[in-house]
Amino acid sequence: MQKWFEEAKLGIFIHYGIYAVNGVSESWSFYNGRITYEEYMNQLQGFTASNYDADQWADLIEKSGARYAVLTTKHHDGVALWDTKYSDLNVVARTPAKRDLVKEYAEAMRKRGIRLGMYFSLIDWSHPDYPTVYEGGKEPENPAQANPYSSPAGGKQDEARWKRFLEFNNNQLQELMTNYGTVDLLWFDGDWERSAEQWNLPDFKTYLLSMNPNVIINSRLQGYGDYKTPEQGLPITRPAGPWEFCTTINSSWGYVPTDNKYKSLNQIIRMFCDCISMGGNMLLDIGPKEDGTLDPRQEQILLGLGDWIRTHEEAVYGTTEGIMNRYYLGGSTLSKDRKILYLFVYDDPKENICLKGLCNSIRKITVLHSGKELEHEIHGGVPWFDIPGTTWIYMSKEDTHDQVTVLKLELDGEIEMYGGSGAVVTHN
Ligand code: GLC
What we know:
This protein is α/β, with parallel strands linked by helices.
């Protein structure tokens, strides 16, 4: 795992595609029969990218505090956002946009030092060679009911055509990985429709690494990736190893104008704090309109999150996961040297903030955004049994930040927490 990824904390996911023309759900709308394939593909005619300005995106992403971006270069619908020579189902050949959107995206991100991520759907529900085998090669009980976009028509599997499809994917990936400079991250999706063997893993991974040994690959690759990607629902138990939580701002990945179920800025910041408290990143999604501009509500969220991050930078970038909720009822992170504990205070405090189980003594407590120093007191504890007391930090509503308040606790050394069940004090 590359260090930059774990230190980045925030990435911006961009679901941009022809589905924004009618504001329908990305790819799934035809797959699930909500509209016909023809209706879906008619959106090609309306995809103009007329106001697409990758520099503006990059500017906004930079302001959001994100250190990487991930663009849907091809979703399950198979429509490539770049000038691929392996299929004419791409926005240069088939839409009024007539531009290589990936190229402009890659250049704009690189100019600003934003790490370059590319989402690539392994699934391609438009490619004639894709629906040629069943998942794991196993014929379903009722082949007639299998979805024709992913399963062989008439139930007859064709290994040779499936191989051809894999070659097609390999060729497109080679274009992405060699024509646009260094790709820092590959974000696969849709691995679930075929087995590891059918995706030709682990050879496929070796192939990708041969083009860039440093590329980070998400784990939607039948377990052969570098990090986990929980989606939409926050993990309660910390996922093992590096991870990234991807989430929408409203409830759609792409631009759906009828979807007004927006999360508030405060909710987004809290979700972000939850992720970094458990050592993860957040990949926050935006869904641009077909012309490449953004719904102002999405823009506002990115700007607001960026403001909050900038004010609290040292509690965010380069930190590691914090302490368990049993010690502190909120989120937290630790500085790399583990000598500073940052507590996220989500609510207005009732006279004080409570922290349990801390064995260190505290040198200083400050409210990060204002620099104000706070007093604290320790009650209880049995130092001669190494059982710490409870730390009460005196804080009032006036000390809080509009969104999430961060308290910086400078400790006398590397943090040490008590994990026992207490004891009878036999020596006083
Ligand atoms: C799901 C969906 C897809 C979306 C992705 C983002 O796997 O298939 O539509 O792009 O999640 O995480």
